[in-house]
Recover the amino acids of this structure.
């Protein structure tokens, strides 16, 4: 038998293609495989179109036209076949995989706020009721704000209370407490009165243990205005302690030392008598320290832009994680940032 002419070969391509497509039988996968075979990069239609180079010159025009017709015919047939196949698949899934609306829904597992965030929110709520705004400041701080402007010049022995992380930029450190926020807010608000809390993460270069972590939260408080006194500080902290720890709480004030306050105090609360942990927590005294505070030192007021002859202020600093540990008898501070869901889910 003589070889088929190029035009005959095109006709065969068309009939064969249509036949194969028909036998793909409305199966989407098979229909798509057919498409690759005919229209893929190495597909038969492409090869036929490229074959024009081998056709005798005088037949080329006719060949080109015929090849295009075949291409369009197969393309159109493919589009139809694909639609039929997809429709069939949809019908099948609607009938055989129908939804059983009587099945119980899938259990959602809603997230929860981290216990540290929860207690922060509680603290914000209490101070909001007392007229305090939340003021946030940076965690990477200058040595100047973290120490110097808080009345701790270089080599001041009080700096020993804070083991500091230094960055590679000279003078830039991770803040060891939220107190530098006092300077930021004073410089922004001066000469207006101030009533803010400054919450946030602090960092200290500590050996990690059940009692100390290298990062922890603090909430600082700052009030500045004409005629602000220690009595205001005491009233504010009493109100806070009662909202936080229970309506019958008493606070006890002991004299203390911080470079940025004068006088400085430490504040204890009486621990409920019915708590079996009372003796252990309070070392038998019945009192537990909850925060440090004091009247803002005149030097600090001046560094913030205020005239200490005209205004006074009080400040305090507390560790919310420590408060949570007390309330829930948590004995290991590392649990806070350990990401152990068994711990976190209990709150
Ligand atoms: N910054 C202190 C610390 O980290 C806590 C503190 C004490 C803050 C007394 C205050 C304050 O504002 O008045 O240990």
């Amino acid at each position: 038998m003589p070889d088929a002419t190029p035009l005959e070969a095109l006709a065969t391509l068309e009939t064969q293609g249509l036949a194969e497509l028909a036998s793909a039988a409305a199966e989407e996968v098979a229909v798509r495989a057919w498409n690759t075979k005919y229209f893929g990069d190495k597909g038969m239609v492409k090869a036929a179109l490229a074959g024009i180079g081998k056709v005798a010159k005088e037949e080329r025009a006719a060949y080109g036209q015929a090849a295009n017709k075949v291409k369009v015919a197969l393309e159109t047939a493919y589009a139809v076949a694909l639609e039929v196949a997809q429709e069939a698949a949809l019908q099948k899934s609607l009938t055989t995989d129908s939804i059983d609306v009587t099945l119980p829904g899938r259990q959602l597992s809603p997230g929860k706020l981290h216990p540290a965030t929860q207690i922060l929110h509680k603290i914000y709520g209490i101070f909001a009721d007392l007229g305090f705004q939340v003021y946030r400041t940076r965690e990477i701080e200058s040595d100047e704000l973290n120490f110097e402007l808080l009345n701790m010049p270089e080599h001041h022995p009080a700096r020993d209370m804070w083991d500091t992380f230094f960055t590679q930029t000279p003078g830039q450190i991770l803040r060891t407490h939220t107190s530098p926020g006092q300077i930021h807010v004073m410089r922004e608000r001066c000469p207006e009165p101030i009533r803010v809390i400054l919450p946030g993460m602090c960092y200290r270069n500590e050996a990690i243990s059940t009692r100390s972590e290298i990062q922890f939260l603090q909430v600082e408080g700052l009030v500045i205005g004409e005629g602000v006194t220690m009595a205001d500080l005491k009233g504010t902290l009493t109100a806070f302690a009662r909202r936080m720890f229970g309506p019958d709480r008493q606070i006890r004030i002991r004299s203390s030392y911080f470079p940025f306050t004068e006088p400085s105090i430490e504040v204890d609360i009486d621990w409920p008598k019915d708590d079996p942990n009372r003796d252990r927590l309070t070392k038998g005294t019945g009192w537990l320290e909850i925060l440090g505070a004091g009247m803002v030192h005149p030097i600090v007021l001046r560094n913030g832009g205020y005239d200490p002859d005209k205004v006074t202020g009080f400040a305090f600093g507390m560790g919310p994680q420590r408060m949570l540990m007390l309330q829930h008898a948590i004995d290991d501070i590392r649990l806070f940032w350990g990401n152990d869901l068994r711990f976190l889910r209990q709150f």
Q: What stands out?
A: The first helix runs from residue 6 to 23. The chain has a mean pLDDT of 92. The chain has twelve helices and nine strands.
